[in-house]
Amino acid sequence: MIDGVKNVLVTIPQEGRDEDASAFGYGLSLARHADAHLTVQAPAGRFHVPYSVLNAFAQKIVSAENRRIATLAEHFADVAKAEADFAGVVCTVESPQLYYQDLLNRFIAQARVHDIAVLNAEPAATQMYWDLIEACLFGSGRPVLVVPPGRNDFACERIIIAWDGSANASRAVADAMPFLKAAKTVAVVSVMGEKDLSTSVPGTDLAPHLARHGIDVTVSDTTVGLKETVADAIQREAAGFRASMIVSGAFRHSRLREWILGGVTRSLLESCSLPLVMSH
Prior knowledge:
Elements: E1 7-11, H1 22-34, E2 37-41, E3 44-45, H2 56-87, E4 91-94, E5 97-98, H3 100-111, E6 116-120, H4 127-139, E7 144-147, E8 158-162, H5 167-175, H6 177-182, E9 185-192, H7 203-212, E10 217-223, H8 230-241, E11 245-249, E12 252-255, E13 258-261, H9 263-271, E14 276-279
Parallel strand pairs: 1-2, 1-6, 2-4, 3-5, 6-7, 8-9, 8-11, 9-10, 11-14
Antiparallel strand pairs: 7-14, 12-13
Helix pairs in contact: 3-4, 8-9
Protein name: Universal stress protein family protein
Organism: Bosea robiniae
InterPro entries: UspA
């Protein structure tokens, strides 16, 4: 039983191509374990091309594609509702057809009133998926749980915390507390060598805090190996620990006043084979 999670949001934007449904399966499984309400968004991305630059034939093609994607979204929403009902999970579904920015705004609005948002992590993620992840991390004030392909069942028996003593890592630990409390064991891992952690809060200071919450916790440091990145080192430690989930703070860089994901954050999202709980 997962205590402290009562509203789970799953968003699967329909873009007219084959969609991986891992986020829905994982979110449904999480909602069942937590006895939580599940909200499923299956918005249809609406193509917008000014009619002034299209001839009549092109206008028909765009309209037909918008109708096709809307039909896919409605079908996914119907299937999701049926599966949730069968699993005994109270579920709300929606499949609005929205232009790009309206889709992001709707997602942020919903994420702000849910405990956690669940999204797919795709090997070749589209810009829309990156924008959804960034919107949740940096615009909703809520954590995001990113699910790689093939992970359809929620599990949190063994959790790795990627700890660097930062405020972002602390926020991620706080947001992931329902999962950490339900875990059989938790490992706090700090990756040395990529940046100076000598003045940061060490993992040995985090451990007593977690232990007072009844969490079985260990602490270790690792270094970045030859030809490894920090993300590689985290995943190596997670594999050795047989982790079922990774908890990490999310970082961003500013470029021309546009927020973009930091290097370690993006690398984890692109290559990790485990569900990631991230907060900023």
